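Lecture 7 notes. Example A: sequence first, then its structure tokens.
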Amino acid sequence: MNEIRDRGRPTGIVKIAVVVPDVERAVAQYGTLLGVDGWSTGLVDSMEGLGAFSAGGAEVDLKASIAWVDLGGVGLELIQPLDKTSEFSRFLEENGPGVHHVALDVTDYEGACANLSERGATELLSADVLGTKVRLFRTVAVLGIAVSFATTMGEL
């Protein structure tokens, strides 16, 4: 276990990502049911140069409408896939709306990614969006959730 602590031990939850069929409706529902407001919104679109994504080492196209809000230091991100082939589209089609992944803060981004890869976790998606590198891993079978790690380019 010391090797893991030395190479990318999780130190906190950065965000919870939820895939939804309609981001505007979901934002309204969070407001109506829970009083959550103050959302920021945006578009991720690799075809328009708004992010670069890969899966299995190959570039993939991804387009999604997103909304995010800070809830006491943990981000809540809503993702509405606007394409038909991305990881988020497949998740929505196979599972319906729900928690897709949890992003963890780690002591060492590269070490944390290596730890999961060395232990057999499959990378679902790698992204570079607005100067932030993200890697998302398939860990549902062993952890009950998919996990991701992120770092800004200056932290590498």
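Example B, a different protein, same format:
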Amino acid sequence: MTAVTFIYGPMKSGKTARLIGDYYALSDNHTVAVVRPALDTRSPDGRVKSRNGSELNCYVFRNNAELMAHIDKSQCDVLLIDEAQFLASQTVLDLVRLSLDTGCQIRFYGLMTDYKGNTFSAAETITRFAQKLEPLFADCECGEPAQFTKFTGDTQGRTIIVGHDQSYFPVCTRCFLEPA
């Protein structure tokens, strides 16, 4: 089994739905823990929720120490992390080391790039150390596979804008590069 995997794609590409499906596929033969950073406020407390309506219990952590304590307590051999783009790079490195030291399989699910097309720091670190990369695509309004996310709302100068689901759209490379 691959130790570190990154499942990534634009908004609305089914990343959380994939995480939930992976949980059910793995949980019969493994001790699986599901976690997400507290910065993600889209899902209800203590849950990951897909846009297709499916939900799953999870542990919500505020910092690296809380995450590592939860992993130690859960004694999982598979860890599924939703919204991985919000992790600190040091947290990613600690999880890679954990996988190497314990054999725990780590699966990160998240965005590769922000709405400007810049790679998230966590995504860059995950990509550097992952043994397996699995891109997911959404459908662009033009019909092409979408690998980017475009934001049409008021950014107020921010790069990370949680929520505002109605202002995010998956787009293909051509539509992403077109002027707004």
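Note on Example B: The longest helix spans residues 89-102. Helices lie at 15-26, 64-74, 89-102, 121-129, 173-177.
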